[in-house]
Every structure is written in C-alpha cells, then in structure tokens.
Specification:
The complex is a heterodimer. By secondary structure, chain A is mostly helical. Chain A folds into two domains: 164 residues, no CATH class; 54 residues. In chain A, 77% of the residues lie in helices and 0% in strands. Classes of the chains: A mainly alpha, B mainly alpha. Chain A: Keywords: Cell membrane, Membrane, Transmembrane, Transmembrane helix, Transport.
Chain lengths: 238, 110
C-alpha cells in the first residue's frame, strides 16, 4: 500500500462520512430504545447491533418477533429488507473486486447505505484512484459512523426503559423508515415499486405468519424492474 | 405484543448476522471481477423501495398504540415524513417534520 497517498484519501473519506453521524446516532439510539422496550437485555441488544450492523433489518426482525411470527419467516423477512446491501456489494465489486480477500471481507461487513453511496460517487468521479486508495476511502467513510452507531445503540438501550408512553415512540419506526424512503424515490419505477408494495401489503395483511411482507416486497421489486424495462423501451422508440 | 424467548432471540441474531454478512460478501467476495446479469441487478435496485414501504404501510393504517384503529395524528405524521423526505432529500429533515407533526397533533387533538 502506498501509505502517503492512501492516508490522505482515508481522511477524505472520514470527512465525507462524518456528517452522517447525524443520521446514524438517532437511528442507533432508537434501535437501543426499541429493543430494550421489546424485552432484550443489554448483551442481546449490543450483540445484535454489532454483528448484524443493519438498522432496518434489525427493526424488522424485532417488530415481527413482537407479532409472534415464526422464526424462519422473521429471518427471511429481515434478510429481504437487507437485500439492498447485496446490491451495494454488487455495485462496489467493479471498483474493489481486485483487493485482497481479507480486505474485501472486512469491507463487506462495513457495506451500509452511507459507505456505499459516498464511495460509488467518489470512484465514478475519480476513475484514476488505485484499488488500495479506493479501499482507504471506503474505510474512511465508515470510521466515524460505526463507533457512533454502536455507542448510540448502547445509550438507547440504557435509557430505553425510562422513556414514558406519552412520547409515542411506537411510531418512531414508521416515521424513521418513511423518512428514509422519501429520498430513495428518485425515478418513476421507484415510485411504482413502492406503490405496488404498499397496496399489496395492505391487501395481504391477513395472510398468516406476516408472509404478506415477503409477498408485497417481491411484488414491488418485480413491478419496479418491469416499469424500468417498459420505460426504457418507450424512450428508445420515440 | 408478546415476550420474546431468549433462545428465539439468539437464533434470530445469529441467523441475521451470518445472513447479512453473506448478502454483503456474495458479490464483492465471491464474484470478484466477473460481470453480473442485468435482470438480477434490475430487481435488486428496487428491494429497498419495495420492502420498506410494505413493512410500514400496515403499521401506519392500523397502529398498534391505538389497538389497530386508524388515527389522524399518526397518518398525518406518516404523510408529512414521506413528503418531506421526498422533497428535501434529507432524512433528518423528514424525521423531524414527521415527529413534529405527530406531537403537534397528539397535543392538539388530546
């Protein structure tokens, strides 16, 4: 590794990632509170947050467990929520695929919304970066975020049981997720995918074991992919 | 709402830990430099925008806190959070707009 250049690129990643502490910290706190209210002990909360390292999937799993969903469905649904990180992994592969396996394994663990989004933009705009420089940038982006996430979860777990019902924290999860969905609706196919998923989820709400979530998610994905193909074809023809 | 059995919780934690790492590792670790089929990438692009709304929609329409009765403050807060996120492209702005709406209406409608 050429240390002088990689080092400055690492710090550039660090600076780019730092503002996202403002997203990771409240979300982590919320998870700590939610998990503690659900009856998890501190050991379970911290193991969960450190090993899974994916807030949305963690929330989904807990929500379904509280609804008495069978374990297998909980796992499948939470992993479906996390399918987007497979997409991030695929998007980073052309840039980082040539790095040593151990670095790719560590990078895989740290593949989250922010590290993916910042890195892909940087790698696209600066195609001359070497593979070690790209890895340095990627790890730079998660250096401020990961500790903030762990610490915020811990604080939420410790404070959790002291928060009164009047704070209506039951609704923190829907608000947080909807706030995340808004910026993701960048194109018409994204909007179509979301609408089809919502309508299907409401229609399948009575399906046992909360399987409606998997059905609705699959329907939304297929609708989005289909809409993308149809719209692309239409723009070629005109 | 029911108590979560510790053994169930540990199974879910372990399953999700391995599963999530697997999802992150599958392309960067196993596929390496080889190209991926278009249809697969096209579906993966829409996972987040499909499955997150599917998870939230029933919680918005039939909230647990009201015993499943549709509720004006919660539905309004949901609409504001989504709209604010869409227009501002900023997650924090959206969260605070939604929370502000929820608390404001809960207070006004008592």
């Amino acid at each position: 590794m050429s240390f002088t250049t990689s080092k400055s690129i690492y710090w550039r990643g660090f600076r780019d990632g730092a503002p996202f502490i403002m997203v990771a910290a409240p979300f982590g706190t919320l998870f700590g509170v939610f998990a503690t209210e659900a009856g998890l002990n501190l050991m379970q909360v911290m193991t969960f947050t450190a090993t899974v390292f994916a807030g949305a999937a963690q929330f989904t799993a807990l929500q379904l467990l509280l609804d008495d969903t069978p374990t297998l469905i909980v796992l499948l649904s939470a992993l479906a929520v996390n399918l987007r990180v497979a997409m991030y992994s695929a998007a980073l592969t052309p840039y980082l695929g040539a790095a040593p396996l151990w670095q790719r394994a560590v990078a895989a663990y740290f593949t989250v919304d922010q590290s993916y989004a910042l890195s892909v933009v940087r790698f696209e705009t600066e195609p001359d970066l070497t593979v070690p420089q790209r890895m340095a940038y990627f790890f730079g982006t998660v250096t401020p975020l990961a500790p903030a996430w762990y610490l915020a979860t811990y604080l939420g777990a410790v404070l959790g049981t002291r928060i009164p019902d009047s704070w209506a924290l039951d609704f923190a999860l829907p608000i947080t997720f909807l706030a995340m969905i808004g910026p993701m609706l960048r194109t018409l196919p994204h909007v179509i995918a979301a609408l089809v998923a919502i309508v299907t989820a409401l229609l399948t709400a009575g399906v046992p074991f909360n399987l409606g979530l998997l059905i609705a998610g699959t329907a939304g994905m297929m609708a989005g992919a289909r809409a993308e193909v149809v719209l692309a074809r239409r723009s070629w023809n005109t | 709402m029911t108590e979560i059995e510790p053994s169930t919780m540990w199974i879910v934690i372990a399953g999700l830990a391995f599963g999530s790492f697997g999802l992150r590792f599958v392309f960067i670790g196993l596929v390496g430099d080889r190209p991926l089929p278009d249809w697969l990438l096209r579906h993966l692009r829409y996972t987040a925008v499909a499955i997150l709304p599917a998870l939230i929609a029933p919680l918005v329409i039939w909230p647990q806190a009201t015993g499943g009765q549709p509720d004006v403050p919660r539905m309004s807060a949901a609409a504001v959070a989504l709209a604010a996120g869409y227009w501002s492209k900023n997650v924090l702005v959206a969260i605070f707009s939604g929370a502000g709406t929820l608390y404001g209406l809960l207070y006004l409608l008592g």
